[in-house]
């Protein structure tokens, strides 16, 4: 799908989910936990991407088993936003960017973010090595790099009009770039390279491990790591686990234990003593070679945590309104978006 955008402003229908604390969870959720019954969580995730690793580790190392949690891995459809995918696949939870969650809520979908994962949006602007575009490693400013995309085709691994695509468009607009043709490249580590190789896009927005996959090919290079540049990537929260509000309210204890398992997975990934073991799990799940897996482990997982910091979320939500990604009214606030069931590190 290709759409021409000169000034991208999200046209979002309005309804806002009211905040719900869901402190105790449902009777059935508490009873299952107390009786040691295994509780199934249907988790929607994009295949072969880096953010899956803490979940895969928690499964492999028995952290979910210790909490009586069983995971069913649901592939995210590549022609839908994450929020649409949760509804379509009838998943209990999925990983959503704040932009996608806000867009869905203001369009009428009832969602809650209940467990954090990535504190920043980990994306890079990629191009073919023979393109002669400026890069920050070559001494260009981030604004100069992004201005080179004026009038060009930029590929994203998300539907055009989705929260992530609108977030990316807002980042380019910070550099004064408004004339871009947006292309949905589809999911998968190879889709970025295929789109760049074929010339169907001039630039691609890649996230780990696709970033490392492209660089290892020798045919593509990262022009800029976006969290080092525009405020929409640098200053704002990345993505968290989200679920239908009804599921969070009815299964608060299950959701909390799922989040605790994810944090145990993060702690294990971030411990250098486990590097070799974690690398093998990453390679098995993503099918990437060892050298790329090593690069991913060295560069990707530092900003991972299940914490849901209110200050960063509030800055993100305010920034999205200023950038036109979200409507000012009715507002989506931290309190209406988040039911915090996160687990502190080490617990």
UniProtKB/TrEMBL annotation:
**What keywords does the record list, in alphabetical order?**
Signal
Instruction: Report which residue ranges the record marks as coiled coil.
Output: none
Is Signal among the key words of this record? yes
Q: Where is the secretion signal located?
A: 1-22
Query: Which top-level group of life is the source organism from?
Result: Bacteria
Q: Does the keyword Cell inner membrane apply?
A: no
Enumerate the subcellular locations listed in this protein's record, separating them with semicolons. Periplasm
Sorted alphabetically, which PROSITE patterns does this protein's record hold?
Answer: PROKAR_LIPOPROTEIN
InterPro entries referenced in this protein's UniProt entry, alphabetically: SsuA/THI5 (IPR015168)
Question: What Pfam families does this protein's entry cite?
Answer: NMT1
Residues in domain SsuA/THI5-like? Answer: 53-274
What does the sequence similarity comment in the record state about its family? Belongs to the bacterial solute-binding protein SsuA/TauA family.
- What is this protein identified as? SsuA/THI5-like domain-containing protein
């Amino acid at each position: 799908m290709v759409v021409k955008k000169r000034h991208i402003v999200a046209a979002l229908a309005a309804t806002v989910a009211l905040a719900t604390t869901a402190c105790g969870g449902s009777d059935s959720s508490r009873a299952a936990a107390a009786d040691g019954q295994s509780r199934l969580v249907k988790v929607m995730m994009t295949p072969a991407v880096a953010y899956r690793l803490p979940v895969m580790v928690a499964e492999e190392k028995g952290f979910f088993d210790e909490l009586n949690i069983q995971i069913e891995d649901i592939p995210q459809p590549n022609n839908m936003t994450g929020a649409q995918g949760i509804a379509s696949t009838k998943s209990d939870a999925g990983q959503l960017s704040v932009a996608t969650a806000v867009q869905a809520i203001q369009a009428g979908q009832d969602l809650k973010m209940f467990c954090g994962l990535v504190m920043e949006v980990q994306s890079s602007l990629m191009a073919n090595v023979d393109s002669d575009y400026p890069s920050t490693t070559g001494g260009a400013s981030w604004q100069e790099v992004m201005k080179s995309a004026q009038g060009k085709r930029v590929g994203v691994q998300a539907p055009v009009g989705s929260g992530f695509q609108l977030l990316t468009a807002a980042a380019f607009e910070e550099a004064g770039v408004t004339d871009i043709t947006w292309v949905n490249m589809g999911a998968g580590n190879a889709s970025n390279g295929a789109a760049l190789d074929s010339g169907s896009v001039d630039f691609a927005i890649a996230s780990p491990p696709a970033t490392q996959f492209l660089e290892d090919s020798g045919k593509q290079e990262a022009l800029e790591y976006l969290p080092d540049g525009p405020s929409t990537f640098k200053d704002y929260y990345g993505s968290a686990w989200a679920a239908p509000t009804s599921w969070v309210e009815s299964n608060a204890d299950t959701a909390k234990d799922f989040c605790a398992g994810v944090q145990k997975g993060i702690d294990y990934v971030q411990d250098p003593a486990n590097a070799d073991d974690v690398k093998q799990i990453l390679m098995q799940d993503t099918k990437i070679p060892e050298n790329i897996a090593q690069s991913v482990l060295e560069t990707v997982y530092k900003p991972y945590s299940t914490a849901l910091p209110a200050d960063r979320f509030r800055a993100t939500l305010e920034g999205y309104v200023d950038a036109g990604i979200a409507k000012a009214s009715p507002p989506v606030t931290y309190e209406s978006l988040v039911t915090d069931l996160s687990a502190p590190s080490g617990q």
